[in-house]
Amino acid sequence: MASQTKVQPLMYFGIAWIVLLVISYHSPYSSTLTVLITLAIIISLIWLLFRYPRDQAFTNWAWTMAGILYIGWMLSYWIELRGQEIGRGLVFLAMFTTFANDTGAFFIGRTWGKHPMAPSISSGKTWEGALGGVLSSIAGAFIINAIFNLPFSYWQIALAGFIISIFAQLGDLVESLLKRNTGVKDAGKLVPGHGGILDRVDSLIFTGVIVYYLVQLAKL
Q1: What does the alpha-carbon distance between residue 9 and residue 70 come to, in Å, rounded to a whole number?
Q2: Angle ∠(199,2,99) on CA atoms, nearest 5
Q3: Does the pLDDT at position 190 exceed 80?
Q4: Whole-angstrom Cα distance, residue 47 to residue 31?
Q5: What share of the chain is helix, strand, coil (3-state, %, to 5)?
Q6: Domain boundaries in the chain?
Q7: Torsion angle, CA of 4/203/199/82, rounded to 10 degrees?
Q8: Which residue, 68, 99, 56, is CA-closest to 202?
Q9: What tens digit of pLDDT does each residue of 71-103 get?
Q10: Crossing angle between the packed helical segments 74-82 and 11-23, to the nearest 10 degrees
């Protein structure tokens, strides 16, 4: 995506830091995540002092940090979620409900979709598809809640399914906006016929965070 805008982020540095952020949960030190983000800022800025050309240093740095935070920071919540007492069931809840949303939105939108939801961002998204995604997400949440016997009431799991669907669709729209801004159809070419890896996980980037904080609120 960056290559289409003539930007040259610190790609390999960014990938390495994304991995470090994702696995930072396993560190025995509570300050690891804060230290990693601080080091990412310092190291990347110093690196750019010695990198040519320098006329796009700020743009290159902004892209580097955006990728680290958008992917690394956000996906690290999935590890946090798995570390909860009922983490296995919560991970399945977040993941299966997101997939149910995407599947319902796709098939219902393709069959009955007539009213564009955000044509300036993604021409294929419709309000009918969005509603189908919400209903499918709620149904998926009930299924996972029953399979894993999660300690949530019916209204809590219905609300969770609804909120997961909303943020899954927002995550999808955000990635569509980024692609439109960079003038690309797919975020990458590593998954032929299905876009890039980012196209496959754009919804999950948001929903892992949302389920984690919903669980924290439920504990209050």
Answers
A1: 14
A2: 10
A3: no
A4: 24
A5: 75, 5, 20
A6: 1-83, 85-220
A7: 110
A8: 99
A9: 999 999 999 999 998 999 999 999 999 999 999
A10: 20
Q: What is the pLDDT of residue 177?
A: 87
Per residue in 142-152, pLDDT (tens digit) is 999 999 999 99
Q: How far is CA 193 from CA 129, 164, 199, 203, in A?
A: 22, 26, 11, 18
Distance CA 182, CA 180 (A): 5
Q: How far apart are CA 103 and CA 140, in angstroms?
A: 11
Per the CB < 8 A criterion, the answer to whether 167 and 206 are in contact is yes
> Across-strand partners of 118?
122
Distance CA 146, CA 120 (A): 39
Cβ contacts of 125 within 8 Å, gap of 6 or more: 105, 109, 116, 117, 118, 169, 172, 173, 176
- The span from the CA of 220 to the CA of 5, in Å, is 46
Tokens of 125: 């998204």
Rounded to an integer, the average pLDDT of 163-174 is 94
57-67 vs 11-23: helix crossing angle, rounded to 10: 30
For residue 217, what are its two tokens? 């609120």
User: Is 19:76 a contact under the CB 8 Å cutoff?
Assistant: no
